[in-house]
TrEMBL record:
Keywords: Iron, Iron-sulfur, Metal-binding, S-adenosyl-L-methionine. Residues 52-181 form the Radical SAM core domain. The lineage of its organism: Bacteria, Bacillati, Bacillota, Clostridia, Eubacteriales. Pfam families: Radical_SAM. The keyword Ribosomal protein does not apply. Coiled coil: none annotated. GO terms for molecular function: catalytic activity; iron-sulfur cluster binding; metal ion binding. Its cofactor is [4Fe-4S] cluster. It comes from [Bacteroides] pectinophilus ATCC 43243. The keyword DNA repair does not apply. This is Radical SAM core domain-containing protein.
Length: 304
């Protein structure tokens, strides 16, 4: 069957050639390991069980995971092997299963989750996405996803076209976020008894949405519009994570405005704006987070 899982609707027969996402029909995974660098209520002390899928429906020019996002790096595995990976991460005391960039593999992921749950998988499932998602594809994860971890990158179509080759990004992402909220609604965190029952740490998010926004240099006004949209539409029903970890890599050397880090002044201005809006359910980053050391090593196919 030709693939139209994402908004690109490239209609590729991925058994014959890769889709726009760069991915074949068969699962391709680059890393499956405990990941310590998500929000505190996702990683905790034990780590999030992050499964990094190769390929991506966007083509962000500043992507820090370019090697796997372009579909060039990863190991092909079966649905049964993915099931086993989920169970292995649970055995390693992961606080959740964190599906990183999963949309182009949703049917296979859903099948693997169904099998794993029948074999004792009980920790929460996190869907970690750029938000460039088809609503119908997200509906396949209804009842399987506990926590959504979506980006909201831009409101300005000129920026989304220049930096992600997706002029319709905001319209698509807004509809996707609406569907995510329909599925999981308000945030829930694990109390002592629930944490013990699930085998995770206390105070981990077990249901809800954390909307992530990565600040880009020189684009603070659009960042403010992102915060306006999310807070005006969802208020305290979602958490907002405002990130300053943007790192200019070699792939942006010819894009002058992106070839620097976000300044302390820019980030402080955005945090002040969020506080003045009334945002209280959120996360900010402190210190020097814009370091390449935060990018995982994808070369060894750890855990795959």
């Amino acid at each position: 069957m030709n693939c139209n899982l994402c908004p690109r609707k490239c209609n590729a027969d991925r058994n014959q050639k890769n889709g726009y996402c760069g991915a074949p029909e068969r699962l391709r995974v680059a890393r499956a390991a405990l990941h310590m660098w998500e929000e505190p209520c996702i990683s905790g002390n034990n780590g999030s069980g992050a499964v990094f899928f190769s390929g991506c429906t966007l083509r962000c020019v500043f992507c820090q995971n370019h090697d796997i996002a372009a579909g060039l790096n990863g190991k092909e595995i079966s649905t049964e092997r993915l099931r086993d990976i989920f169970l292995e991460l649970q055995d390693k005391k992961a606080n959740n299963i964190n599906l990183v960039t999963p949309s182009h593999y949703v049917p296979r992921i859903a099948a693997a989750l169904d099998m794993a749950k029948q074999q004792g998988l009980k920790i929460p499932i996190v869907y970690n996405t750029s938000s460039y998602e088809n609503v119908d594809t997200l509906k396949m994860m209804d009842g399987l996803t506990d926590v959504y971890l979506p980006d909201m990158k831009y409101t300005d179509s000129r920026l989304s076209m220049r930096y992600s080759y997706a002029r319709d990004y905001f319209d698509v992402a807004a509809k996707a976020l609406e569907e995510m909220y329909r599925q999981v609604e308000n945030p829930v965190f694990a109390d002592k008894d629930t944490a013990k029952q699930l085998g995770i740490e206390e105070d981990m998010m077990i249901k809800g949405i954390i909307v992530r926004h990565l600040c880009l240099p020189g684009q603070i006004e659009d960042s403010k519009r992102v915060l306006d949209y999310v807070y005006e539409n969802y208020g305290d029903a979602v958490y907002i994570s405002i990130m300053n970890q943007y790192t200019p890599l070699d792939n942006v050397k010819d894009i002058p405005e992106l070839n620097r880090r976000v300044t302390d002044e820019e980030y402080s201005e955005l945090i002040d704006y969020a506080q003045n809006l009334g945002i209280v359910n959120g996360f900010i980053q402190e210190g020097t987070t814009a370091l390449e050391s935060f990018i995982p090593d994808f070369g060894s196919y750890e855990g795959v």
